[in-house]
Amino acid sequence: MTRTAATRMPIELRTAAGRVAGRGTGLVAEDTPLVVALHGGGYHCGYFDVPGHSLLDVGAAAGFEVVALDRPGHGGSDGPVADELTFARSAAILDEAVGALWSERGGTRPGIVVVSHSIGSAIAAHLAARRPEWPLLGISLHGVGDRSPAHVVDAWHGIPAGAGPVELPAPQRRALLYGPAGTVDEDAVDAARVSVAPLPLTEMLEIIDGWPAEHRRIAADVVVPVHYTLAEHDGLWVVDEERLAAFAQAFSSAPWVTARIQRGAGHNLDHHRLSRAFHLGQLAFAAECVARR
C-alpha cells in the first residue's frame, strides 16, 4: 500500500544560544499531544524522515503533529563551541527552544511528548530532569543504554584527542547501527545516508564515559512517564534483560515506565522493516500519556 508523505514545514526557533532548526508536519488534530523528536549522534533531524520509514508521515496519518529538531550544533541549528557541547548544555538550549515551539504551536493541545534516539535519548532524559515549564507529558527513549561493549569503548577512546567531528565510514555504520540483513532493507540504509552528519568527539566520549556514570542520578529526577526500547541487535550497547531492567528501574520517580527489547532490529530502529509498527507504538504511548495524566 502506498502512503502519501505528509506536508513538511521548516522550523526555526530562536534561543539565547542562537537558532534551533528542524522540520515538522504542520497543524493536525489539536486533541493530540505535540510530538518533538530528537535525533542521535551522527545524524541531523532527517533521521526521523527517511522515505518509507518516516515518523513524521506515520504521525501525521495518525493525527499527531510531529516536529523533528536539529540538536544544538547539528544540521541547521547553532550551538556552543565543541568543548561546551555537553548533554546538559544541549538540554538547556532545547528546553528554551521547545518552550518557544510550544508558545507558537501549542494551541489547545494537552502537552508535549518527546521522542528520542541514541544520544538524543540521553539528552531527552536531561531535558525531562530539568522539569521544564512547558507541559511535558512523557518521554520515549530508544537507542541508549547504560553499558557499551568494550570494543566500542576502546574504539571511541582510540580517536586522537582534539580530533574534529567524526563521520563513520559506511561499512562501519552499517555494522554498528543496523541489524542483520533480514531485519532491514538495504534501500532504507542507503536512503538514510542523506541524514548523516559528523558527530562531535565530545558527544562520543560523553555517551560512553559520562552518561553511564551519571544516568541514574539524571533518571531519578524524571517525573513523567517513560517508554524505553532497546533493539535486539544494537551494536553500541550491551543488550540483555538485566541491562534493560536496570536502565528502566533508574527512573524511580516516574509515575510509570514501560521497557522492552525490540526483536528484529538494530540501533537505528527507525529505519528497519518494523519501523512503522514501532512508530505507532510510540504514538500510542503519547496518547496514553494524555489518557493517564
UniProtKB/TrEMBL annotation:
Gene3D superfamilies: alpha/beta hydrolase
Statement: the UniProt record of this protein carries the keyword Hydrolase: yes
Pfam hit, one: Hydrolase_4
GO MF terms held by the record: hydrolase activity
InterPro entries in the cross-refs: AB_hydrolase_fold, Hydrolase_4
Keywords, alphabetical: Hydrolase
Occurrences of domain Serine aminopeptidase S33 (ranges): 34-133
Protein name: Alpha/beta hydrolase
Species this chain originates from: Pseudonocardia yuanmonensis
